[in-house]
Amino acid sequence: MSALQTGSTTAADGTPPDLARRFDDTIARDQRIEPRDWMPEGYRRTLIRQVAQHAHSEIIGMQPEGEWITRAPSLRRKAILFAKVQDEAGHGLYLYSAAETLGADRADLTERLIEGRQKYSSIFNYPTVSFADVGVIGWFVDGAAICNQVPLCRSSYGPYARAMVRICKEESFHQRQGYELLMTMMRGTDAQREMVQDAVNRWWWPSLMMFGPPDDSSPNSAQSMAWKIKRHSNDELRRRFVDMTVPQAEKLGVTLPDPELRWNEELGRHDFGTPDWDELMRVIKGDGPCNAERIERRRTAHEEGAWVREAAAAHAAKQADRKKNGAVA
Amino acid sequence: MTATAPATAALALGDDALVLSHRLGEWAGHAPVLEEEVALANIALDLLGQARVLLSMAGDEDELAYLREERAFRNLQLVEQPNGDFAHTIARQLYFSTYQQLLYTELAAGDGPFAPLAAKAVKEVAYHRDHAEQWTLRLGDGTELSQERMQQACDALWRFTGEMFQPVEGLDADWADMETRWLESMTDVLGRATLTVPEGPRSGAWSAGAGRQGLHTEPFGRMLAEMQHLHRSHPGASW
């Protein structure tokens, strides 16, 4: 076992060593940490950050596709979009619940999101400018999410892993639907085929960036992997995504916008070009194409909904009072 | 075009569901709490499902949804009203889902062409009505501000409620009795929500029943422009 794996979890802060040892053992035996178990403060903080950002991504991720609900070109596609956006809100709810088992508070996490103190996936800062984007988001973005999330079904924190099992089932359904939309469009008119290729060109690199910075500049990764919160490195997951996607692109009849992309016989995987990491850093820091709009929309919904939440709380309090008084009388 | 009676009725009911579903879709990403993102999308999806069955009874669902102009739509003016604030959306839901529950219960009990659809839809509609009722109670009997907004919403939409009970050709229902029961239900729910039952006319813009004749309010054209734009831009394309 590496120094990293033992050194940072055992107690230097006065925690009884048997608790720390039990935690380390649980991780080592690939068993689950549950909400009432002792856990190192760093583990708790890292998980709250990751789960909250995951929840925020689901919620912000409703926007780029939600844009097209009112313009979906057939009733069938409209129904699919409604169901997908509804699923995303549901995923956000599961994940906020998982974060709450770690002692976080949903209202506080929402504040952090709209104040820009917590992040969400960089991908949702790109605009959806044609209906083909809806299909490409299903294919690439949900595809990348699946690569990321399937291993998280074995994450060491129980509530997170269980949320992932439910979420992954729905995500793979969305991914197939997105791909099927693109298939239908590719069999359609020239204009539809152009829309698909254009969308692929715009979303390819941002999708590769969803896996995060390269391993040599991903400071939290090693600890997260030691704690088995994460199971694979960013670069490893990115490679898997490329290997999975290339044959799908061929079948669809689109090209991926990377002149360096080719099969490497020796390594048994694809070589591909380097994403523009400066762009990723700009987007993460808030300077992507839609960062301001996405947060503003979330903030507006939250602020304009305040009176509704206050009414619900006031009504619940009145009901509780009536019940109490009724019980006394 | 002279449509047969079931087609006329299918369009009336189908357009109601289609248009209200669309309005609810405008809430995506804007709801006051996450639970309402889920609930409003859920209701919208139920309504869209109903619309697809009903429009398919009258013709091709996409042609009917995307290629008719404003004057050919047969929905109630109530369902095309803009979302407004959350109270307006809830008042619209309360008025409409109560009506839909009464109508579908009758249709489900009969042996007409709409009985199978109504039998399934009536379960969904019961949920929609319960959702609207619960929110009417929370907003009406919540804070001073929420009560004021809920009352304003009920008042503003009241004038569109009369047209729901104009008989629709091809639908076998006791319209007068439904209206009585609808009014009783409103008196009950609004009363429990500490709200006043509005007193104004219920004749709608133009006149009661105008929506069913294809006479709509101004916001509807803009709604259709958005809904139909992409479909119309690519004639003959499949999606």
TrEMBL record, chain B:
InterPro entries: Aromatic_CoA_ox/epox, Ferritin-like, Ferritin-like_SF, PaaA_PaaC, PaaC. One of its GO terms (biological process) is phenylacetate catabolic process. One of its GO terms (cellular component) is cytosol. SUPFAM superfamilies: Ferritin-like. It comes from Streptomyces cellostaticus. It holds the Pfam family PaaA_PaaC. It comes from the Bacteria. This is Phenylacetic acid degradation protein.
